Amino acid sequence: MRLSQRAESLKESATLAVSAKAARMKAEGVDVVSFGAGEPDFDTPAHIRQAAIDALNAGQTRYPNPASGLNVARKAVCDSLLRDAQLTYKPEQVIITSGGKDAAYLAFHALLDPGDEVIIPKPYWVSYPEMVRLTGAEPMFVVGPESRDYKLTPDLLRSAITRRTRMFVFNSPSNPSGVTYDPDEVRALANVLQEHDIVVLADEIYDRLLYGGQKTISYASVSAKAYAQTLTCNSASKTYAMPGWRLGYAAGPVEIIKAMAKLQSQSTSGAATFSQIAYAAALGGDQACVEAMRVEFERRGAHMWRRLTAIPGVRCPKPTGAFYCFPNVSAAFARLGVDGSTAFASRLLEEAKVAVVPGEAFGMDQHVRLSFATSLPQIDKGLDRIEAFLGKAGQQRATT
Ligand SMILES: Cc1ncc(COP(=O)(O)O)c(C=O)c1O
Fold first, then answer.
1. Topology of 5-43+289-395 in CATH?
2. Does ligand 1 come within 6 angstroms of the Cβ of 204?
């Protein structure tokens, strides 16, 4: 069977691959602690589930009309952007998509041609480079210093811009590092970009999960120019614990939204109708559920980070958002005889029965990603095992 070059050259999502291997081991009866998941471990709040049930019972089972998003959902997105980010959008500036992933996918395909360049800060969410490559464009990576938790400086961003730069991907809070840009840092990057004809894909999917008093600002709200050059993407998955509902959106310039809608009309035909109605209920309803989940994530993240950074040789940015720790574990590589994060993660899974995602998938091979979207007892159990694994590795080496 001959497959397309495009399909052959595409990498499988490493995050999904690790979860799948851990799930296989669990199904075989192995007691695996999984830090692989990129999804909340909470159920979707009851009032949101009820809105979907009501929609189904009311016959909302037809194709979404229009495909680019039900008016009720687009209006709810506009209202929430005004309430949470002081951003004014009209419904025609919004497209409802099948998850935040679909929003990014459609955006890249609407904007990129072969030969174009997209600046992607490292560490990056796994899917950006592959999505960009699928369009024929080229991802250009740039990384900030470790002392700044890998955050870009304006100078670094400026030096990455070329004549061919068409887009900049800005994901804050970050998956996988859990790092968040504060308002002044966002403004400083926007100052650089506003001199250029570059579209910013602001992936703000973790914007409601901030910890330790961290402040941030929606990229598009920085200035009129930033607003005009930004596509703000978000999703129901992380904020409302709705990853299986496949709901997200992009908001931005009408001509980009229209191009994305055209692509959507020829691919998925839009996000599921009753899901969209539930998303509108989530965005417009009581936000106490969001805060309750945030508080719990904050507790777990602080605990995981304290335990990780207490392990000799492990360095880790403090998570100020999202639900991930991204430690540098390379101090143990030589002792373990492994050549990078994938071999490290594989040994950790096989020998210590702990699933983490290799940092290689996020462009940084000295790190691994641990999700703290799991219970505190599981976090402690997994960290006990990691400590023992790293301690044992040290002892093994010392005696050989
Ligand atoms: C940074 C980032 N963007 C987008 C997504 C896509 O999420 P979804 O398609 O579930 O909305 C994820 C999911 O892990 C993510 O971490």
1. Aspartate Aminotransferase, domain 1 (3.90.1150)
2. no
